[in-house]
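Issue 218. Parser rejects a valid record. Input:
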Amino acid sequence: MTTLGKNITITWLGHATFHIMTPEKKRILIDAWVDTNPSCPDTWKNKLAKD
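Output the parser choked on:
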């Protein structure tokens, strides 16, 4: 996980999938190949499935 400037975090989830959290707690999921992505940690698969 990388933190940029004003509490913006970018987390690489595997392959070309990234999770971005803004200072306002908005979530942005880019290239959302999550469910069957072998590089994506199971904790993230479960977390995103609940949202």
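Fixed in the parser; the record now loads. The chain has a mean pLDDT of 84.
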